[in-house]
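Exercise 7.
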Amino acid sequence: MPAGLRRITQERAHGEPCEAKTSNTPTSLGDHAPLPATTPAWKAKPSFYLVATDDRMIPPAAQRSMAKCAGATIAEAAGSHAIYVSKPKAVVALVEEASKAATAK
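Solution. The predicted structure, written as tokens, is:
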């Protein structure tokens, strides 16, 4: 086995067999239990979306549609799917706008 890799076994990190736990429901924070969600954050909190108009993975029209469904404040920039790499200033501007909106309340 290459250095740095471990073989997967039937034992959990704490020595308990995998079969010992019969439920998929987390039972404690130690199991990384998610908090119960009653309302998706995008429905209850302000959302912001940067449409990458040169994206060839997700068409800009689909991006606009998804952002509109989320009730997001929409900004656009000419850039690729990895807009955060191709147009970091546009990303920073939108993050700053979101931050100002959040702290204004």
